[in-house]
Amino acid sequence: MTHALRVFTGPQALDFLGGSWRELYARDAAATPFQSSAWLIAWARQLASDVTPIVLVSTSSTGKPLAALALARHDDGTGTQVSPLSAPYAECVRPVGPHADDPGVVASFVFHLMLLAEETGEGVSMTDVLANSGLGRYLTQMSQNTGWSRVDTRYASVRLPFVYAALPRSTRREHLRRQRAWVRVASDCEVTYARTCHRQALMNAESVMACLRPARWYSPLLSGPTSANGRDHWRSVLGQLDPATTFIATLSLDDTVVAARLCLTRGRHCYSLIPVTDDRRRHLAPDHALLRHLIGDLTRKGFTMLHLGRTPAPEQVGAAQYQPEWTSTLSVLASPDLAAA
Predict the structure, then answer these.
(1) pLDDT tens, 277-317?
(2) Distance of alpha carbon 258 from alpha carbon 251, whole angstroms
(3) 3-state secondary structure at position 95
(4) CB neighbour list of residue 74: distance below 8 Å, 6 or more residues apart
């Protein structure tokens, strides 16, 4: 297929995200909520004045968009760094569009990134790219051939409906032990599972969630340069997302929330991010209890997959108790020094 590459920056990039991007997203069954126009525009609005949104667009010979990749360029006056737009907050990154995995399209995106690193001396960090996507496969091969740094992170997805009886005996015992503990708790306290269903409930739950939020398990090794730090940015982003496809699930003892998860949905897939718990109730494993309720809730509503997302080594034992399907994301880094080597 003959195609060309167009580059939109600044206001033009935002216009594309608000227009043609939506059609590309609608025609891409493999795209996740982290590639939605609403998510990307919401994070683009949090960028500092020295960060510019960029959209790479692969077009057909007639000019029709085939696929697009959203990036951000940070220029602090001493150098520039290019990374995915909304990094490191997106659990997985990929281009969007019906031809997002086509080898020629992916090659044009990566070639452009290589030119930025090798000819203009810009740093390039492509973080949390789905390894099984066309872009992920190309970046894997390229990192092996060029010496670009690469870090792989396991990514867990739980297929629904989840069958506890199919688990290994030792794992079933762990689940039963925790369930019995919560039965004892329920004899003294009211245990309540809830999920938000409208915007005000979402924002109220975010306020509660923010009080529980610990430091995220990762310190993004190859994180992108955005100014989106702190609670105000998250509240702004959540305020722009559709509450029909964005919710916070909570587990409470009496009137006190002890565990919460922010979730995004697309079709029959649910993507969980930012799990938080009350440290004072850690002995009860409240996040596991919340997951049991969430899995049951999603199953009843017809969901077929719960994505637990990036799962570093300390979290893998807990995630393994749900017999997830393991894939991975990868992050590659090219500094001007590496590109010139």
Answers:
(1) 998 898 899 999 999 999 999 999 999 999 999 988 888 99
(2) 6
(3) coil
(4) 50, 51, 80, 81, 82, 83, 224, 225, 226
